[in-house]
């Protein structure tokens, strides 16, 4: 069985006390069937660090992008996005999008960066990974205005409602669920999950953030993707092996692997 973590930040895991090193983290993941990873960049310097750390692993893919919260300090690096995104192991643009929760005063620059990520993604024929927080209306508006259906992508760590999910699916986007879906108070999200077709689903840890139940409160890691997968299988009433195959096919289809 093969599970794919479609969104994680492998460079930010605790290699001092939680894991001995990268190989130790990978060994723990492998024991839980997590054998492929998309480690996501949030700035240009972060991307360069990811490339340095994981270049030797052909089962670790990466994205290139500037997180909306980093737009202000990354102004001078936006012109590097297209060139760096041509790297053979880069299978996506992002993490991009909008975050009005932490940084509403930078709405304009966030929107400009988001649009540029979509344009580069369309040009390079690679999908985008989208972050949205307190900004879903503008997120959908920009995706439509920039014809994001031409590149497709993922709305990562999805927490929105059923109507939003289907607006994204209509644009050719996949909906990715993180450990949040395992939380006891995530009833609305779990009900939304029931209505989303399996053909539009992906799963992620977003590690080291958002540890799923029963590891809530601990630092997250890719090995915990198995807990998320099992929980979703209970909600969707599907066998784990079958679900893993569907997720793998979705991932391979989106990223043209």
What would your notes on this structure say?
- With 257 residues, the chain is α/β, with parallel strands linked by helices.
- It has a single domain, classed as TIM Barrel.
- It is built from 9 helices and 8 strands.
- The chain has an 8-stranded parallel β-sheet with strand order 1-2-3-4-5-6-7-8.
- Helix 1 (22-31) links the parallel strand 1 and strand 2 (34-39).
- The longest helix has 18 residues, at 107-124.
- The protein starts with a strand and ends with a helix.
Order of helices and strands: EHEHEHEHEHEHEHEHH
Radius of gyration: 17 Å
Helical content class: 25-40%
Q: Give the uncertain stretches in residue-range form.
A: none
Record field, number of beta strands: 8
Count the DSSP helices.
Answer: 9
CATH topology (fold) name: TIM Barrel
What is the total domain count?
Answer: 1
Question: Which architecture does the CATH hierarchy give at level 2?
Answer: Alpha-Beta Barrel
Structural class: alpha/beta
Strand content: 15-25%
Overall mean confidence score, pLDDT? 96
* CATH domain class name: Alpha Beta
Bulk shape: globular
For the record, give the distance between the C-alpha atoms at the N and C termini, rounded to a whole number.
18 Å
CATH superfamily: Metal-dependent hydrolases
Oligomeric nature of the chains: single chain
Strand order of the largest sheet: 1-2-3-4-5-6-7-8
Largest sheet: 8 strands, parallel
